[in-house]
Amino acid sequence: MASYLVTGASRGLGLALVQQLAARPATEVASIVATARQPRELPSLVEASRGRIAYVPLDTTSASSVAEAVDRIQRTHGNLDVLINNAGVGSYTRGGVTEMDATDLTDVMNTNVTGTHRVTQAFLPLLRRGTRKSIVNISTTMASLDKAQTYKDMPVPAYRISKAALNMLTVQYAHALADEGFACFAVSPGWLRTDLGGSRADLSAEQGADAVLDIVREANTAQNGKFLNVRVPGWENHEGLNQYDGRELPW
């Protein structure tokens, strides 16, 4: 039985992750801590879960908010097995990087990179007491330097830059925690139909969540320090921009 913490859990992929974790048997998923700045749709899920889901307010950009969340979860749960760093923001910049506002880049980096570090560092003592010791950072294929040319026309430079930095943060944690038996890795969930991905995206949030959890469920130290693509049946050899083949992605 594993305990999970999901950040950015009130909508999109985060909400779908919580829903699908709650649908798994209690012998597999003992408890889910769903964190977000605002609960949105979470209260109904919490009520229906009969104690398996707990909502905890958490703003990843606020050190005091993170500290309060750690204190509360330590008192109620004691330890954690899996941390899914899903909270993130994006921004569109017409004209690309040459038109990108520096303040916008700073704001996106603060959430997608600094916020992830703040949360991971703060919850590390609880994860060290867990048995699974998994840290999962939600990234994107658009952050791959190898694939930069493929996505060169996407008008989201701040998002891509921040996720590339997140990938390096992932590797740094993987190296630092390897001797403790951690699996710290990045996952691209695919282009999802969410507020961030838009209505024209390839996959539903539910498909993305299911594919991410397939990876998380089987994760062990062999995944430590890797950048993984989800696998979605029928999308392995798709002729379009994106393929979801379950393979390791190039940094």
TrEMBL record:
MF-aspect GO terms: oxidoreductase activity
SUPFAM superfamilies in alphabetical order: NAD(P)-binding Rossmann-fold domains
CDD domains to which the protein is assigned, alphabetical: carb_red_sniffer_like_SDR_c
Domain Ketoreductase: 2-141
GO cellular component terms, semicolon-separated: cytoplasm
Family stated for the protein in its record: Belongs to the short-chain dehydrogenases/reductases (SDR) family.
UniProt name for this protein: Short chain oxidoreductase
